[in-house]
Amino acid sequence: YGTNDFDGGxxxxxxxxxxxxxxxxISKAYPNINIVVCTPIYRYWTNENGQYLSDSETKTVKxxxxxDFASAVKDIAQQYGLFVIDNYNNSGIxxxxxxxxxxxxxxxxxxxxxxxxxxxxxxxxxxxxFNN
Length: 132
Prior knowledge:
By secondary structure, the protein is mainly alpha-helical. Helices cover 49% and strands 10% of the residues.
């Protein structure tokens, strides 16, 4: 949930509704599991020539930014008492270092170094939450 919904023009209310429905469906089907939700990560957009156009902090779709979708994930998780991993703010990937973690032509899918950076954040967060 997140970046594809945002970029595809899904409204924030539709997004929240879909995330809520998914959480409720999973919780009903598997009442004893721990659900962990993750925010989308920072991303950016380029034109067909690879020139920077905007990023998740500046681009708006239906008057919302991707940061609004990341906040919505955290809000919904809080409503359900779920653990949330904030990859947007805590993965360490941002506008300053984007070239290190994405290719020059794809600001959506992190490269191997970016995926590793996200995995490190997720492992750290999961370990701190569930290591009893």
